[in-house]
# Entry
Amino acid sequence: MDLRQLRYFTQIVESGSLSKASRQLFIAQPALSQQLSKLESEVGKSLLNRSSKGVAPTDNGLALYHHARFMLRQLDQALSIARQDTKAVHGMVSVGLAATTVSAIGLPLVRGIRERYPSILLNVVEGMSGHLGQMMRMGQLDLAVLFNSDVAPDVTVESLLEEELFVMLPRHSTLVAPRRTTITIAEAAALPLILPTSAHGLRRRIAAEFEQRSLVARIVAEIDSLSLLMNCVYNGMGATIKPMSAIFLEHERGKKWRALSVSDAHMSRRNYLYSLPPERLSTAAAVVAAELKQTAHRLIEAGDWSGVERVGLSPV
# Structure
């Protein structure tokens, strides 16, 4: 399968007939039919229903069409960006990031944009994932990193990375024996926990793990401010469950933390990159999206963003 075949196939679907597509593509219809046959042979499925009125995609063909259109638009956008002088790319781009994401990627992202694309005005909005999702639905953000794949319709969604969730305690805490590096999920539920409110995606993710095992968490406080929550934990009021990025800024402030892995449950959250659909995404926003992905992957590969696994970028 090559990009030419995908371009031919998407044009056939959009034209509704091979003859119209051949005219649009300036290619002879027999040659177009041959390329379509090769594509169907490689896929192993029929992609089009043919009739006297023209052609229409099969279910498999429709699935391929949506993914192919996404891939081709991304490629065209990437080539357009690559051909431009970076100083010529300009405009304002609004990016929504949760507090933990800002801690991990905020500074290197802003620095990278300032160094490589000085004419882009980057507007970083920090907030709860629920609020950022609402802003994305209302078209108030160009890009956002969120934790569910169905937050907003009619946008592009890509898997970005997977964060492990840890039980967080200050180094001086006696809630868990000092030499322990892991904890069971039942032990975690029994700790006095300080967590975000139920409006927060992370809280719902944690609650689902507890409910799956019929565990009742011992919640002593609900706080949606990351800095206040971590201060309360550090001052001995309880423990919390967060990705590793929650303590990045804490370490910079001289605070010492322990991050305990949950030994008998896979507690993690997927990060998704949301962006406006390609036809509405500005060149500047596409540049920032590419820079965000590259920055995240660079931090992971260098070991500067621990507890995180890179996942294949694909449309959801």
Summary: The mean pLDDT is 88.
